[in-house]
């Protein structure tokens, strides 16, 4: 069948492919030590100097699945004109490398550096705003979001992490997947002081003396994959990095059963505990875009 016949015969297909942008691969985006794939979503109506959001899938799934799962994100891009990068990793059961010193360290290599190459490619190609680069991720993608915040604070402007682990928790583990990693982190058995966790973050780029991107984290109390104790560890980590303390707890924010904790003046760090929610907390695109200061 000719394409034109197909389009005419199927109005839904027209809506999906003609009037909205599509997800497409970018074969050569630069230095790629993690051997990752880059997919990009560029809206038809790109904003001038657009923001860039890196959207990071979890383990056991390709980027395409995450693109379909977080279904409010592409329409938000169509509406507001920002670019979305969907990095994809296939090795280690599709889990991001959050265990090797290469990936955990500024400009040392592996997946984190490949993701930074994707960002630099998008900035150059679309004249994007380097001060509006964000990362969002679920599970393994949440772990990687925090790696990017710690190791590339010069690249990322804010991150939002759904159901992850503290930065550095899996350092030195044989892998980063449920099958290859040391299970102590996922069980919530790796407990450190705020100072120890913050020292981890600072080790990502020794000598860096600038500020870190604002961090928003989410976790469910019924998470059977990554124990909710990890939320407490992440809170210790980032409140120490930012030198902030709890100032407000808001019940049922943004919806029933969620408790939002605000620290300091609320601009550097916030956390959400989702009562009865398992792995992973569904992405709240609106709350994350607000955190990024986009809308
Ligand atoms: C990774 O870095 C830590 C310090 O942060 C160090 O103690 C450890 O030996 C390093 N591991 C390897 C394999 O180089
Ligand atoms: C921060 O780092 C920059 C570049 O490494 C250096 O030029 C500057 O003196 C440092 N500032 C402080 C307060 O240490």
Question: Which features would summarize this protein structure in a list?
Answer:
Rossmann fold, 295 residues, ten-stranded mixed beta sheet, alpha/beta, binds 2-acetamido-2-deoxy-beta-D-glucopyranose, 11 helices
How would you describe this structure to a colleague?
- Strands 1-2-4-3-5-6-7-10-9-8 form a 10-stranded mixed β-sheet, with helices on both faces.
- It is built from 11 helices and 10 strands.
- With 295 residues, it is an alpha/beta fold.
- It has helices spanning 3-9, 11-17, 63-69, 73-80, 91-94, 101-104, 110-126, 140-151, 194-203, 229-242, 285-291; strands at 23-25, 37-41, 52-56, 83-88, 133-138, 158-162, 215-220, 246-251, 258-263, 269-274.
- The chain starts with a helix and ends with a helix.
- The protein has one domain: Rossmann fold.
- The longest helix is centred in the middle third of the chain and has 17 residues, at 110-126.
- The site of one 2-acetamido-2-deoxy-beta-D-glucopyranose (NAG) has 3 residues, from loops.
- One 2-acetamido-2-deoxy-beta-D-glucopyranose (NAG) binds next to loops.
- Residues 1-20 form the signal peptide.
- Monomer.
- Keywords: Carbohydrate metabolism, Cellulose degradation, Glycoprotein, Hydrolase, Polysaccharide degradation, Secreted, Serine esterase, Signal.
- Its EC number is 3.1.1.-.
- Its main location: secreted.
């Amino acid at each position: 069948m000719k394409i034109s016949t197909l389009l005419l015969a199927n109005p839904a297909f027209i809506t999906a492919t003609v009037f909205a942008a599509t997800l497409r691969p970018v074969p050569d985006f630069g230095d790629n030590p993690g051997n990752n794939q880059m997919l990009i979503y560029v809206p038809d109506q790109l904003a001038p100097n657009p923001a860039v959001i890196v959207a990071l899938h979890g383990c056991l799934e390709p980027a395409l699945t995450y693109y379909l799962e977080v279904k409010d994100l592409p329409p938000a891009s169509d509406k507001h004109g920002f670019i979305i990068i969907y990095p994809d990793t296939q090795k280690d059961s599709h889990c991001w490398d959050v265990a090797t010193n290469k990936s955990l360290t500024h400009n040392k290599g592996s997946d984190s550096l490949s993701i930074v190459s994707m960002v630099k490619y998008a900035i150059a190609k679309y004249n994007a705003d380097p001060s509006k680069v964000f990362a969002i991720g679920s599970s393994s993608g949440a772990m990687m979001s925090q790696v990017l915040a710690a190791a590339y604070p010069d690249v990322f402007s804010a991150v939002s992490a759904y159901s992850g682990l503290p930065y550095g928790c899996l350092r030195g583990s044989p892998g980063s997947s449920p099958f290859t990693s040391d299970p102590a982190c996922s069980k919530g058995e790796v407990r450190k002081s705020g100072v120890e966790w913050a020292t981890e973050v600072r080790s990502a780029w020794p000598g860096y003396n600038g500020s870190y991107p604002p961090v928003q984290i989410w976790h469910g109390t019924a998470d059977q994959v990554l124990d909710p104790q990890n939320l407490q560890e992440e809170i210790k980590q980032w409140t120490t990095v930012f030198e902030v303390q709890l100032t407000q707890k808001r019940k049922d924010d943004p919806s029933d059963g969620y408790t939002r904790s605000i620290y300091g003046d609320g601009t550097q760090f916030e956390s959400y505990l989702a009562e009865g929610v398992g792995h992973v907390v569904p992405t709240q695109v609106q709350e994350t875009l607000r955190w990024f200061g986009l809308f």
